[in-house]
Design brief:
Radius of gyration of chain A: 30 Å
Helix content of chain B: 40-55%
Strand content of chain A: under 5%
Distance between the termini of chain A: 100 Å
Strand order of the largest sheet of chain B: 3-2-1-4-6-5-7
Number of strands of chain A: 0
Oligomer: heterodimer
Order of helices and strands of chain B: EHEHEHEHEHEHHEHHHHHHHHH
Number of domains of chain A: 2
Number of domains of chain B: 2
CATH class of the largest domain in chain B: Alpha Beta
Order of helices and strands of chain A: HHHHHHH
Structural class of chain A: mainly alpha
CATH architecture of the largest domain in chain A: Orthogonal Bundle
CATH superfamily of the largest domain in chain B: Spore Coat Polysaccharide Biosynthesis Protein SpsA, Chain A
Amino acid sequence: MWQQVELALKESAHRALVTLANFLPGILALLLAVLILTLLGALFAAMLRRLLVSLRFDERLALNTIVPVTDWAPSHSPTLLVTRGVFWGCVILGCIIGIIAFDSAYSGNFQMSSLLLPYFTHSVGAIIIFILGNLIARFLSRSVLIGAVNQNLQYARFLSLGVKWMVLVITAAMVLDHLQIGGTIVDLSFGILFGGIVLTLSLAVGLGSREIVSRSLEKNVDSLDSMPPETQYRPSASEKLRHF
Amino acid sequence: MASSPTNAAAFEAEPTPLPGALLVNLAPLAPEDLEPALSNIALAFPTQAVFVALPEAPNVSVQTSFNTLKLLPYPPGTTSSTSPVLTAADFLNTWKLAQENNAAACLLLGTESNSLQPDSIRALASAALGADLTVARYQLGPTEGLVNSAILYPVTRSLYGTRPRFPLPLDLGFSLSMAERLAAAALRLTSGNQDDAFVWPVAEAAVASYACTEVEIPTRTFPQPPAPDLNTVLSQVAGSLFADIEAKAVFWQRMRSPSPVRSITPTPASFENLPDVAPMLDTFHLAYNNLQELWSLVLPPQSLLGIKHLSLMQAGEFRMPDSLWARIVYDFALAYRLRTINRGHLLGALTPLYLAWVASHLTLIRKGTAPEQHIEELAQVFETDKPYLVSRWRWPDRFNP
C-alpha cells in the first residue's frame, strides 16, 4: 500500500513540476512582454513629449478653441495628457501581447487566453470608465458649485454634492455592469440610488426655494402695483453699478 | 449735409488741416446713429479729406451729404458685431484699409461712437499723428468701469510701465507702423479662430517700445456687453488679459522701470447714490463658505488668512487691503498660466473676490476717499508687488508662505 501511496505522490509531484515547468515560460513571456512594451512606451512618450514641446503644442491648442482638451486636463498640459495616453496604451498593448504569449507558451489543454483576454479588455474598459467618471464628476461638481455661488444660491454646496454623487453612482453602475458583476442587483440598486438622489435634490431645492419663489412673486406683484409710469421710472441706486 | 449735426454748437472754431491722410474706422452702429457719427467726423475735419471705413454701405443720401468724407464700406462679415470692445477683426480691417488708402494715421472708434464730440475726435487724430498709439481717457463715475479700475489698469501699469488709465479703450488712434503691429497681433488671434478675442494695444505698444499717449474724452456713452451676468464678462476680460500676460512674459519680466506717477486731483464722490454693498458681501461670504477648497489650490496661506480676516469684518468697516487684492490677482494670473485648475473654474472663483474688492472700494468712497486716489494707490501697490509675481512666475514650485 505504501508503494502505491509513494507512487501516487511521485506521480502528482511530477505532474505538478511538469505543469510548473510549462507554466513558468508563459509567465516569463507575459512579464517580458509587459516590461518591454512599458520601456518602449516610456521611450515613445519621452520622444513625443520633446516633439510636442518643440512644436509648442500647448500654445497652439490653447489658441484653437474648437478642441477644448485643456478643460479635461485640469492640472496638466495637453502635451502631458497625450504622452501619458501613449505610455499607458503601450502598457495595455504589452499586457495583451503577454497574455497571448502566455497562452501559446502554456501547452496545457486549458485555453486561458479565451477567458483572460475578454476579461482583461473589460477590466481596462472599466478602469477607463472609472477614471472618466471621476473626472466628469469633479468637473461638473465644481462647475455647479461656482455657478451656484455666483448666482448667490445658499444651497450651492448641496447642489454640487448632489451632482457629484449622481455622476459617481452612474459611473459605479457602469463599471460593475462592464465587469459583469452583480447582474440585476446592480440595475436595481442603481435605479433605487439614482431615484433617491434625484428625489432628495428635488425636495431639498423645492422646499428650500419655496420662500425665494414666494418672495419673488410678492415682489413682482408689489412692483406692478407701485411702479410709476414709464416716463417717470428711474433705475434704483443698486442698479447703477457698471463693472465694465 | 446731415440733417442733425448734434455737436455743431460745441465746435465752432475752424481748425487747420492735419498733415497726412487719415482713416477713421467705425465699429458697427445702429442705422439711426450713423448719420450723427458721420456728422461729428465731418465737423471735426471740415477742411480735410478723411477716409471713413464702415462695416455696412450707408444709404445714398448719407453718402452724398458729407463732401469731405470718403466712405469705404467693407463687408460686415469681416467685423465683430457681438462685442462692444474692439476685437481682433476690427484691427485687421483697419490695417488693410489703411494700407490700401495710404493713410498716415488711423482712428478706430468703438461702438456708440456717435456720442463722441468733434473736438474729441480731432484731439485723438492730432495725437495719433504725433505718437504711435493714442488711447482715450474717459471721465467715469465712481461706480463705472470697475473691472478696469480693479484689474486692467493696475496690472497693465505695473507689468508694462505704461500710464494709460484705460488699457482696453473703446476709441484709439495709431500710426501706420502701430497699425501693422496691432494687425499682426490680431492675425495671431484670428488664425486661431478667435475673431472676437481682445487685442491689448497698450501692452503691444510697450513691447514694441512705441510712444503711447492719452487724450481726454470728456463725454461719451458706453455700450453694455451683451453677456447678461458679471461672471461671463469678468471671465472674458480677465481671461484675455491673463492670456496676454502669459504671451508677453519674456518682456514684462525684464521691464523694471515703473511708470511715472500720475498727477490727479482728488475729488471725493457723492456717496448718496452709491449702491448697497450688502449683496456683494453676501456673495463673498457665501463663496468663503463654499469655495475655500478651490481658493486654497490657487492662493498661498497668507492670502487665505487675509480672506479669512475679511470674512469676519462688519459691513460698515469692510476693507480689503490693496496688497491682498494685488496678490490675489497675481496668483490667479499665475494659476491661469499653470492651469492649476480648469481655467473656466478659476475665473469663476475670482468673481466673488472681485465683488469683495468692489464692496471695499465703495465703502472707502462712502467714507470720503476720492475714487481716483484709491485707484492710484492701488496701482502703486501693484507696482511695488511686481517682484512677487516675477518670482512666482519663474519658480512656481518654490515654498510660498
